[in-house]
User: Fold this.
Amino acid sequence: MAHAVRPHAAHPEERATAPARHTTALTATLVLVTSYMVAEVVGGLMANSLALLADAGHMLGDAAALGLALFALWFARRPATAKHTYGFYRTEILAALVNGATLVGIAISIIVEAWGRFQEPSAVKAGLMLVVATGGLVVNVLSLWLLHDHDERSLNVHGAWVHVMTDTLGSVQAILAGALLWMFGWRWVDPLASILIALLIVFSAWQLLRASTAVLMESAPGHIDVDEVRTALLATAGVGAVDDLHVWTITSGLEALSAHVLLCDDRSPRALLADIRAMLRTRFRINHVTIQVETEACDEAGLHP
Assistant:
């Protein structure tokens, strides 16, 4: 006899409240970043600094990432439909993937421009560059503070946080370049700082692309050992075997599991499912569970009481 039961310890609808908790922080950060991006473009043009313009370009990427993150959070709230039975949670992951790809594009454009500057170094107003870069650092640090409580709960928000973090490091690079230019007049420092900023961007983008692709490919979550889950299921009283075990991520913070288990004692399937559900929730934080309970094999083997 097979019993297909789906005990959801935390329904997807409960997860739908999560986007609302991130919206305020993302909106405030978007306003900050967009406002200073304009100032940095003006300052970069006035100072003739590629490092500042690269940082402004990265801020443009930040603004796009934050806007996309807000859109994804709004879209993810839409209820499930007959066609989209899981709802639209994966919109967050798609947004994170786009953010990662955008970072790569920004980095490539910075490197190309920096190479031209190495060939023909340009005069840069170091003092103005230093002042504008310092202002950018202040804005970025404030933005990181606004997002720091939210980035670990959503891959989409983490993507926006990564944008701001790399931009913060870029501002540090621009400040150092401005200081060296001001003290020693080294024109090559400006394009060098730009390339270093671009390398930081690529590193961050790779981490984001890898994480979002893993979710879209339905890989097992990195923090969950599937073999350990199987062992824990087999250790549950009454479970004789576990087959077709799958663990994947629907979206950030919402892991799912499906499996067939063999019931080999006299308890009811519903009692066994309650034990399994409690174990998976407390030990592995897996809340979306679908278990099919089989009993016929135990009957045939004489294992059932």
Summary: The beta strands are 2-5, 239-251, 254-263, 288-294. The chain has a mean pLDDT of 79.
